[in-house]
Design a protein that fits this description.
By secondary structure, the protein is an alpha+beta fold. 40% of the residues lie in helices and 16% in strands.
Length: 212
């Protein structure tokens, strides 16, 4: 089996797992992995629970379709991340219920929007940026993501959902799962003035577990 064939199978396996466990629904969400000669990305209008490895969209470096079905309209978003995150081995964008709900609430710091409730939330996601609302597929959204991705591996799109890059497909999956669960905790504790990790504790995590 070629390296590309293995990646196709891995994308489908990760997509199926995320869908079956309720991290996304319907035809929402998309996944991409870079190749030596382009990009593999999930097709538009496809359910992550029923993907066909052979029908994944293969794009060249300029975003032109080489083979497979028509790509997700968010392919511009994925390309934007890879342009600035050269070590990224995958990008996952989902519409998880709790992270979308959190994206509808105001935040004090749009460069650190996810409350520091647990060590693993910070270790996996880092400082999560929040972007204002853009229409899905809008080129301006991709440009905004590219600017934020220079300093953030994880980004929350207002009224839309998270975009997470990782050094590998599994790393990206684990991070977006942690983001969703941390968002769930944040909503459970909303208005209850929870204790957060201190700046000293966060600095200690950064020293021991540098991201990326």
């Amino acid at each position: 089996m070629s390296a590309e064939s293995r990646l196709r199978e891995e994308i489908v396996a990760v997509a199926t797992s995320l869908f079956q466990r309720g991290y996304t629904h319907g035809s929402t969400g998309n996944i991409s992995v870079p190749l030596e000669d382009g990009l593999l990305v999930t097709p538009t209008g496809a359910s992550l629970g029923t993907l066909d490895p052979a029908r994944l969209s293969k794009l060249d470096f300029d975003g032109r379709l080489i083979s497979g079905d028509k790509p997700t309209k968010e392919s511009l978003l994925h390309q934007a991340v890879y342009r600035t995150r050269h070590r990224a081995g995958a990008v996952i964008h989902l519409h998880g219920t709790h992270s979308v709900a959190l994206s509808c609430l105001p935040v004090e710091n749009p460069d650190d929007a996810l409350p520091k409730l647990t060590a693993y939330g910070h270790m996996q996601c880092g400082r999560v940026a929040m972007l204002p609302y853009f229409r899905p597929g809008d080129a301006e959204l991709a440009a905004a993501v590219e600017r934020k991705a220079k300093a953030h591996w994880s980004i929350l799109l207002a009224h839309h959902g998270p975009v997470v890059a990782g050094t590998s497909l599994m790393t990206a999956m684990h991070a977006i799962e942690e983001l969703e669960q941390t968002a769930r905790l944040a909503l459970m504790l909303h208005g209850r003035n929870p204790n957060l990790l201190t700046a000293e504790q966060i600095d200690d995590l950064d020293r021991h577990f540098p991201q990326g």
